[in-house]
Amino acid sequence: MDEIIHLFCIVADRLKQVKPHPNVNLFPSEVVTIGLLYALKGNGFSAFYRWLSRNFRHFFPALPDRTRTHRLLAHYSDLADYFLDDPTFFTVLDSFGIELIHPKREGRSQQQLGKKGKSNHRWIVGVKLVPLLNNRGEVVNWTWGTANMHDQHFRQVATLYDGETIALSDSGFVQKDAPPSNIKLCRRGTWNERMTIETTYSLLTRLLHAKRMTQRRARHLEAHLAYLAALVNVIVQSCASYSLAWTDFTV
Question: Which residues are paired to 19 by β-bridges?
């Protein structure tokens, strides 16, 4: 309960300039808080909605039905950008594989969202999340694509900040025939600053259970990733400001 109140206070303070539509039942800050809770809970949306409705409906008395709530999260996901942070002199760029279905189920549906690719030296059928992190571990920008896409397709996440930061990356993001940019190749065993990404990926894997997701539509997957990026920043900033541990954010 304390975690939900803490999240809502942070969200309300960050979105105080956003004006709600006069006919809405849920304020934007309430929807974004639900989105952050969804990213924190890390289950399928049906299970999350049952948990939220059963235990915390008194916090959200105007909570609509499950499908309407799911659509609201996608509609308001752009507000998660309010939680992105500024780049520092050095940033870190890498990709994070997310499995959507088991490889044996590949090709069974024409509406399949994920594609087959490698993540951590194993085959998955899913997508890649590509965040740009500053030296505090906060997300500056992010994008995503199917798992079969090469990391070079995601270079624009860092090149948008050319002149503001130097993005430390592995060889996957470096193009020999590309003009000089702010992406710097870090060979194995060098540039310990890149370990920031490992800390964040540990947070995504162990606390937020983001290695596996269940979305089947691109707009809902993108909304989940947007709230996930915002939640990473909320956790990192709260841990730094209030001397909290990651485990204090479990619900």
Answer: none
**Mean pLDDT of the 68-79 span:** 94
Cα gap 80→15, rounded to integer Å: 10
138 Cβ contact partners less than 8 Å away, ≥ 6 residues apart: 84, 85, 232, 233, 236, 237
In angstroms, what CA-CA distances link 36 with 33, 40, 87, 221?
5, 6, 22, 14
Kindly report the average pLDDT of the chain as a whole number.
Answer: 89
CA distance 171 to 95: 12
Phi, psi of 231 (to 5 degrees): -65, -35
Residue 196 CB burial class (10 angstroms; 0-12, 13-18, ≥19): buried
Q: Provide the phi-psi class of 189: left if phi over 0, else alpha when psi is between -120 and 50, else beta.
A: left
pLDDT band at 227; cut points 50, 70, 90? very high
3-state secondary structure 62-75: CCCCHHHHHHHHHH
Q: Is 139:84 a contact under the CB 8 Å cutoff? A: yes
